[in-house]
Amino acid sequence: MKVLVIGGGGREHALVWKIAQSPKVKKIYCAPGNAGISELAACLPIDAEDIDKLVEFGGKEKIDLTVVGPEGPLSKGIVDIFEEIGLKIFGASKKAAEIESSKSFAKTLMDTYGIPTAAGRTFTSYKKAEAYIKKMGAPIVVKADGLAAGKGVIVCSTEKEAIGALNQIMVKRAFGDAGNKVLVEECLTGEEASFLAFTDGKTVLPLPTSQDHKPVYDNDEGPNTGGMGAYSPAPVVDRYLHKRIMEEVMIPTVQAMASEGRPYRGVLYAGLMIDGDRIRVLEFNGRFGDPEAQPLLMRLKNDIVPIMEATIEGRLDKCRLEIDDRASICVVMASGGYPGAYRKGLTISGLADVRRMKDVVVFHAGTAAKDGNIVTSGGRVLGVT
Ligand code: AMP
Ligand code: GLY
């Protein structure tokens, strides 16, 4: 088989690493990839959101399976376009990916189908949102409706901060059109966990639980990032909660999407807040998490390719996941200054030493090859897993 992976971060390196282990796979391409990925796949100079070029490449090369990493191309409808020309692709359709790309859609879906989540309301009017914030008081959470690269959620401890956030999103338009609507919701407390599952629209096959850590510094301090590390399993999700998350969140959500005429195929990721025995959904993502994918894929023992094919073809009821009992952890190494401004082009040393370590894989995120060296090219650089 020829496989094309779309994206170029740590999650995509983990996907390429896992797919490369499949005896079914002869050749892997990755668009755009990174220096680590280029050891396993042919990297293409095509942006992950350049749908036209990706479709052209997929058709010309007769790619047998395309796997989409990030949310951008999913929300632009890459899956629908590939399927229209008969190319097999793993990921959520445009209408299904709205569960991530529109927080108001996800909130309405959860409210309609009784899926537990924070109480909240969506606004298109600044005045009405402001009045609601004043009525509800702080702490309160203000969210841009659309995709904002993980930065569109502002947890506010005062009313003033919340109105400032509203101003940033709706007036200053810090996230562009993603801020045409705003979601204002109750601030939840507890411990977060990520719950990811393969689903073909009928069967839900859960991956192990995981937990990601967003603040940049140790002890969960500093500003939020895309994720500084993740481990699996998440001890907060015991067997009892696991069963309830499947029954109260994952299965009802997949059924709700089917009822709404948006059959969900791919990976469904629920970001949960667990408070004692209360489970509430903070958000859904229509893809693997980054960095959750790194520890999760190291624990998955199956060949991932047949699982992805079964997801696409509606045969997940015939599949079982085999999981390594051992825990795994990914620690992200970021460039100084991230998530603010940081330097690029710094030489990375020590990678060869890690190759000799058992059960350790260094997944690359922002790396590039330059003059025989591997150099940094992004904020999150490596995921030591
Ligand atoms: P999201 O992108 O919706 O997952 O939000 C990013 C982060 O903001 C989450 O991982 C939580 O840490 C936090 N967050 C989102 N919604 C809430 C909420 N209703 N209450 C408290 N924290 C929240
Ligand atoms: N690690 C959080 C995310 O992928 O959205």
**What structural class do the secondary elements suggest?**
alpha+beta
Query: What's the β-strand tally?
Result: 20
What is the 3D form?
Answer: globular
User: Hetero groups bound?
Assistant: adenosine monophosphate, glycine
Mean pLDDT score: 96
Q: Order of strands side by side in the largest beta sheet?
A: 3-2-1-4-5
**Major sheet size, sense and barrel closure:** 5 strands, parallel
Q: How much strand?
A: 25-35%
Radius of gyration: 20 Å
DSSP helix count? Answer: 12
Cα(first) to Cα(last) distance is 28 Å
Helix % is 25-40%
The low-confidence parts are none
Topology:
Elements: E1 2-7, H1 10-19, E2 27-32, E3 42-43, H2 51-61, E4 65-68, H3 71-75, H4 78-84, E5 89-90, H5 94-101, H6 103-113, E6 120-123, H7 126-136, E7 140-144, E8 153-156, H8 159-171, E9 182-186, E10 191-199, E11 204-206, E12 211-217, E13 221-232, H9 239-259, E14 266-275, E15 278-285, H10 293-299, H11 304-313, E16 328-334, H12 351-355, E17 362-364, E18 367-370, E19 373-376, E20 380-384
Parallel strand pairs: 1-2, 1-4, 2-3, 4-5
Antiparallel strand pairs: 6-9, 7-8, 7-9, 10-11, 10-14, 12-13, 13-16, 14-15, 16-20, 17-20, 18-19
Helix pairs in contact: 1-10, 5-6, 7-8
Bound molecules: adenosine monophosphate and glycine (GLY).
Task: Provide a descriptive summary of the structure in words.
Helix 1 packs parallel to helix 10 and helix 5 crosses helix 6 (103-113). Helices cover 31% and strands 29% of the residues. The model has no long low-confidence stretch (mean pLDDT 96). The chain has helices at residues 10-19, 51-61, 71-75, 78-84, 94-101, 103-113, 126-136, 159-171, 239-259, 293-299, 304-313, 351-355, and strands spanning 2-7, 27-32, 42-43, 65-68, 89-90, 120-123, 140-144, 153-156, 182-186, 191-199, 204-206, 211-217, 221-232, 266-275, 278-285, 328-334, 362-364, 367-370, 373-376, 380-384. The chain has 385 residues and is an alpha+beta fold. The radius of gyration is 20 Å and the shape is globular. The strands form five sheets. A five-stranded parallel sheet has the order 3-2-1-4-5, sandwiched between helices. A five-stranded antiparallel sheet has the order 12-13-16-20-17. Strands 6-9-7-8 form a four-stranded antiparallel sheet, sandwiched between helices. The structure holds adenosine monophosphate and glycine. Glycine binds next to loops. The site of glycine has 7 residues, from loops.
